[in-house]
Amino acid sequence: MSTTMTPETPAQARVSPLARLQGMGGNMRQYGIFGALVVIVALFQVLTDGKLLLPNNVASLIQQNAYVMILAIGMVMVIVAGHIDLSVGSQVAFIGGLVALMMKDMGLPWLVAVLLGVAIGAVVGAWQGFWIAYIGIPAFIVTLAGMLIFRGFAILLVGVTVAGFPAPFIDISGGSIPNFLGFAGNADAVTLVLGAIVIAALVGSQVRARSVLKKHDLKTEAVPLFLTKVVLITVGIGAVTWVLSQSAGGTPIVLVIVGALILAYTFLMGRTVFGRHIYAIGGNVQAAVLSGVNTRNVNFWIFVNMGFLAGVASVVVTSRAGAAVAAAGQNYELDAIAACFIGGAAVTGGVGRISGAIIGALIMGVLNMGLSILSVDPAVQQAIKGFVLLLAVAFDLINKRRAGGSR
Amino acid sequence: MTGDHTILEMRGITKTFPGVKALQDVTLEVRRGEVHAICGENGAGKSTLMKVLSGVYPHGTYEGDIFFEGEPCEFKGIRDSEERGIVIIHQELALSPFLSIAENIFLGNERSKRGVIDWNSTNAEAAKLLARVGLTESPDTKIMDIGVGKQQLVEIAKALSKRVKLLILDEPTAALNDDDSAHLLDLLRSLQGQGITSIIISHKLNEIHAIADTTTVIRDGRTIETMEMHGAEPVSEERIIRAMVGRSLDARFPDREPVIGEEVLRIEDWTVHHPVDHGRVVVDHANLSVRRGEIVGIAGLMGAGRTELAMSVFGRAYGSNISGRILKDGKQIHVGSVREAIRHGIAYATEDRKRYGLNLIDTIKRNVSSAALDKVARLGVVDREGETKIAEQYRKDLNVKTPTVEALVGKLSGGNQQKVVLSKWIFADPDVLILDEPTRGIDVGAKYEIYTIMNALAAQGKAIIVISSELPELLGTCDRIYALSQGRITGEVSREDATQETLMHYMTMEKDGAAR
């Protein structure tokens, strides 16, 4: 295909004007969600007289919402592929119970229990993936069944609250990275170093991506927009780093876990063949099949992965609670699903990003924390979160409609 | 200005989208009671013009004036235009498959008393409307149980129920076979007798010739020419084409010197059963072969099993109880999945690119690489830079009209979407490329480009199988043509011997060997 095959056509490149905007469309939406997060943070910062962003509150915001972010990562993949998983809350209770019993009753070392718990999560995911991918039962049904099944198992398993775990296990969610570098002023030096590394890596990857686009004469974002983005990344992460470095412990361990997962899964979704196949299935499953994508295998592994992440979440949740109860993880599936949709995932599949889901989870988390500081009735909090979900998706749809004309 | 005989006048219509003038000073004048054809290449602005007319783009979002029956129109939406008697029937039919014909006809316009549907009047009026469009189906037949041709007629019945004065049909016969198309055109003529004016957007020049009183050609968002079809001097198809593409197409098919090599693919004794109704034979002991550098056609009527044959060969993407042999380069191969088919160098570009061929909500770039992603990936990680380069290369080579390969495929015109489908399969580098209706719903200029691409691929030594409902297309492009009837290969004709008549004879051959 090195030679030009087509004859000259007189018609000028007549391109839908919308196509020109398309390259930017996805990004614009991401900025929109991010902007919403900033606005909500600012709002609560004012409403709570600056309590929201107190160092210790920021640290506990992260610790409290780690589970939503972990589940949302798996959930956004499920949703992009056009499925849903209603069972993750029950999975969290079931696996959390198992991990607790392995440590308390079977006397397994905490690390072994954690690894086994995560592995069991993958097995649970494989169970559901089997029915969905190979038998062809809609994920809604399979995971609705799973929601009942694993909640039932959790209740059978954890008759009474299991508590009293080894300190290292509790540290997964409650502890911080040991400060072996000492303090710079009153700032935790390890945190500062970590923050600097993250900023450098993110800015570096943005610059690299841009230069690749440039090299191929592809549309790049306007320079001011790009610079704004870089500045925002730097200021945003810098600010979080600074605040965290002032907190009692410095960098929460769970932040490192979540951060690593975000990076790994962003790479998986954006850069790998597997990730591409997920988008292909969600975008048009028949076209994916006729392009040689093994949709069954992809669907199966999406759910194995969801189970794996539910395992990780259950460890984090059990560690944070310091106890396993049968009622753990109630409504977690809804938190994760809401985070994905607030983060711009499409109900019809094919669209959604890890970064969006994380921002969605943070929006929910900030709402939770801010409303709690204001001591708003939990029932009212729940209603507010419902409205936010509704408005976020409505906003998204209206925007899309405006951009897409009648389509 | 507007005489009595003019029902619609659109003057100086300019519609601008951010960055692009989709319509520029377009003028359209339609006389009462005529059939007015609008033609133009994809992206020329035909659909935009009709959307302006029907109020999809409300008054104020465009410049210019619309006069309907002498009165100025400022439609705010489709409802406004429908109230005045302007009804548009889109290419994608807007019927609900699980509802009955009668329910669909009065959908949104129910015969009811205080919110309770009056079924007697619904069904009685529906029956009357069905009779007017020549449908004998019972009004309570479900839409899903009738064919596309009849669904089209239901749409027209629905338009009639709204007391339509000006009926706009956007490529009404694109999805219809010849019989259904002929019936539809007859119907338009009889509606014309009842005083209904029609605007028909079509790519099919023979159709325009058969039915239109006047033809307006639009190119690049401007009115190029309005022709009287029954004037003193008859309008030739060539003249319409010239106006559409802005140049003369001496031939509708590019020249080609076939260089045919050894056999690449042979299918023997291929039998396929229906995927649900296992007893039904869809492809019946078919034998066919294709050689390097050869373009082979498959002709057949709707339901003859053309697509089913191709898809069953393409990794058993269709059918059940498949038996027979596939030989590639003389050796028997097993093709159990689409992946294996691609690995064996077989590619299939579907007839329905929107449903089966493309991920419309993804970018051009990512669609191009989707069938052979492993070629731009190492250890499961996609080389985005390489991927972009490849997509850019195909954009240039195949002349895909888009500012960037990052644009969404769903926003492209049909011809450009088809070029993306071709890019995708050319990138997979197959030895055998099966093209199912490669030019369906594509305008003349883009068709020519697609043929040129096919020829270039054949010249590179690829074997090409073309499935098409348009016999002139097969006659103009193929070296050899198989005719398929009721799942059986009933004839094989070389380029020299092939005529529409011989092909049609084979295509209509019954099981016992006699012509239908």
Automatic annotation (TrEMBL), chain A:
InterPro entries from the UniProt entry: ABC_transp_permease (IPR001851)
MF terms (GO), sorted A to Z: transmembrane transporter activity
TM spans (from-to): 31-54, 66-88, 108-127, 139-163, 183-204, 225-244, 250-270, 300-322, 334-367
Localization terms from the record: Cell membrane
UniProt keyword Translocase, yes or no: no
Membrane topology field: Multi-pass membrane protein
Keywords, in A-Z order: Cell inner membrane, Cell membrane, Membrane, Sugar transport, Transmembrane, Transmembrane helix, Transport
Keyword Transmembrane helix: yes
Cross-referenced CDD domains: TM_PBP1_transp_AraH_like (cd06579)
Pfam hit, one: BPD_transp_2
Role description: Part of the binding-protein-dependent transport system for D-xylose. Probably responsible for the translocation of the substrate across the membrane.
Protein name as it appears in the record: Xylose transport system permease protein XylH
Organism listed in the record: Cellulomonas cellasea DSM 20118
TrEMBL record, chain B:
Record's keyword annotation contains DNA repair: no
Alphabetical UniProt keywords: ATP-binding, Cell membrane, Membrane, Nucleotide-binding, Repeat, Sugar transport, Translocase, Transport
Endpoints of the signal sequence: none
MF terms in GO: ATP binding; ATP hydrolysis activity
ABC transporter domain segment(s): 8-245, 265-511
Compartments reported by the entry: Cell membrane
Highest taxon in the source lineage: Bacteria
Membrane association type: Peripheral membrane protein
Gene3D superfamilies: P-loop containing nucleotide triphosphate hydrolases
Keyword ATP-binding: yes
Pfam families found in the cross-reference section: ABC_tran
InterPro entries reported in the protein's UniProt record: AAA+_ATPase, ABC_carbohydrate_import_ATPase, ABC_transporter-like_ATP-bd, ABC_transporter-like_CS, L-arabinose_ABC_transporter, P-loop_NTPase
Residue runs in coiled coils: none
GO CC field: plasma membrane
Entries under PANTHER family matching the protein: CARBOHYDRATE TRANSPORT ATP-BINDING PROTEIN MG119-RELATED, XYLOSE IMPORT ATP-BINDING PROTEIN XYLG
Protein name: Xylose ABC transporter ATP-binding protein
Source organism of this protein record: Cellulomonas cellasea DSM 20118
